[in-house]
What we know:
Elements: H1 15-28, H2 36-43, H3 49-61, E1 65-68, E2 72-75, E3 86-94, E4 100-103, E5 111-113, E6 126-133, E7 140-149, E8 154-161, E9 166-170, E10 179-181, E11 193-201, E12 211-220, H4 224-234, H5 243-250, H6 258-262, E13 265-266, E14 272-276, E15 285-291, E16 297-304, H7 306-309, H8 315-323, E17 327-328, E18 333-334, H9 339-345, E19 353-363, E20 369-380, E21 383-386, H10 387-396, H11 402-421, E22 431-436, E23 442-448, H12 452-473, E24 483-485, H13 491-503, H14 513-527, H15 536-542, E25 548-550, H16 574-588, H17 595-628, E26 635-643, E27 647-652, E28 658-662, E29 670-672, E30 678-681, E31 687-689, E32 693-702, E33 707-712
Parallel strand pairs: 5-7, 13-20, 14-21, 28-33
Antiparallel strand pairs: 1-2, 3-4, 3-6, 4-5, 6-7, 8-9, 8-11, 9-10, 11-12, 14-15, 15-16, 16-19, 17-18, 19-20, 22-23, 24-25, 26-27, 26-32, 27-28, 29-30, 30-31, 32-33
Amino acid sequence: xxxxxxxxKTGKLNPNDLxxxxxxxxxxxxxxxxxxxxxxxxxxxxxxxxxxxxxLDKLENDKKIVAxxxxxxxxxxxxxxxxETHVLIGRVDMTRNGSAYIVCDDLEDDIYVPARKLNYALNxxxxxxxxxxxxxxxxxxxxxxxVLERKTExxxxxLKLSSRFGFVITDNQNMFTDIYIxxxxxxxxxxxxxxxxxxxxxxxxxxxxxxxxxxxxLGKAGSSDIEMKSILIQNGFELSFPPxxxxxxxxxxxxxxxxxxxxxxxxxxxxxFTIDPDTAKDFDDALSLEYLDNGNYEVGIHIADVxxxxxxxxxxxxxxxxxxxxxxxxxxxxxxxxxxxSNVLCSLRPNEEKLTFSAVFTFDKNDKxxxxxxxxxxxxxDRRFTYGEAQEILEAGEGELAAELKKLNQLSKKLRKQRFxxxxxxxxxxxxxxxxxxxxxPVSVYVKERKDSNMLIEDFMLLANRRVAAKIGKQEYPVxxxxxxxDLPDMMKVGDFIKFAQALGYKMNIQTPEQIAKAYTQLxxxxxxxxxxxxxxxxxxxxxxxxxxxxxxxxxxxLGFSYYSHFTSPIRRYADVLVHRIFEKNLKERYAVKQxxxxxxxxxxxxxxxxxxxxxRQSVKYKQVEFMTKRIGEVFTGVISGMIDKxxxxxxxxxFCEGMVTFSTLPESYQLDESRLFAVGNISNKKIKxxxxxxxxxxxxxxxxxxxDMELANDE
Length: 716
């Protein structure tokens, strides 16, 4: 291969070498999007932007790259030659049937690996994968050649003892074998108990099973508490903090010195309050409202100053980064930071002086922002509202701070209206909540309703997050920063979804990504009056990309923002901690961190966020099944939400619990159509289709498999 060189005199590449270099850049970083100016900087060349743009145009004509909005380009995924073998590093994303997809930073598409070629890799592991494009198809097929890093070394399972050794049968369905436990490493655990095991060696020449030690016995299997702990551990989260982290936390003083207050803007005399859920203890944001003499007014968005207490490089900081997020299960919270920090030092509790990182916006009489200020502050919260209390005051128009709440609510609605006008997608998906008894067993299931008090807080947090990102991103010489990005939807997936919706009798006209926001927002409005369309909501969301953290800003499609970050929840998100540190330094002078290191941190935080989301969903599913164990034989109304060869899924209208009706329970056999939209009875030609409203009886609810079996009620 001919080596490409810059001209020593000019530092420029000739046209052919320029094309080769640009294409090589896109191939090295296949998920990145670049414009001409960014390519010029990345390649460190002195070619003009016009000459780089000309090369980009030619590569687009050759179908090597694809043009995107904002004059950016990305690699054409067809660029991988069919049959040619490649090797990359990625993460394992396991499927229910035992096969997996390998997610690689340098590939647009994931790599499919069948179960027999996983080479003992488990979900979330970092692996080396050898792959090629399947001839005649676009799918990438691969084989794992090495496991480079395990997602977790802790597993939960049931201990079985023999006279010479013990072994743990793990709850992880993807675990390829039992874990061997030497008798001296039982740590007091008894036969049949649920235990936590740490792998100390994955394999030896004599013993092919992983070798582990028991770190904790949880007692007899079956309790809700144990199952919730299992969910956390199986997703890679440790239940307790290391001793050195707790010692560091406990050593922190609650006293705020006068010298520290003097370094900050003093908001203690400004009316300030918080609005949070009933059970919340970590109040990480507060709002203030102050009217100025000239008729303008200031809204302050005050965020807990976590970085004042969690110093970079400390044991607290390292543990917070390792966790990266608090995990919210149905009945508990696994915090990112120890309780003294999250619930005491940094929690913006009423009638206490607290340190903040604040964003203050000055509005004129027409509710337009005319000035913004960012910096460290100190507040004294006058009132702690729950969402319910604030909502009652908004609806009644009277009560404590009624005028202030009304003003902020009016302003938030204007901000929201403008956001939707600019292209924000309104995905107001239902959030399932449970009322639990003293043992943690669900006694009722309900859907949390988003009201004005919820959206008021949401709108002001969006404002702060957006303006912080813009402050950094719009600088003449931007520095690497932690952005919250959301890519454009996959138009092929959107096309399939449109056909699916049309088959259900719902027509959508979408030709460009810009039209998706309006179409999806209209769909969500229509589902409120047409329950049969509810099945389309989750399918619409699946056409969208996942929001992630990155130092490479491409904007946030779902919100319609060109610049967006996370600034407002540093108690529970490490991304916000990073944002606070970088942002504070850049308020004083230009400060740039190494982008490669920052991008690696963004990747870790995004992966931890996905794990936390998985854990939260699993806890909801467990509690839904647990709720249904007390309702065997009862009849509910539901909507057919999915169809497979075996039968169809039904989501119950009242509580969003989902179960399956198998075709074998019906009075005749059914043939599933290729579209998977409907099935037809072989004798009666009766059609059962997606979106149908049906009455079902609960047959069984299995907590071990977390599955609910149903049958059509007699009147069906």
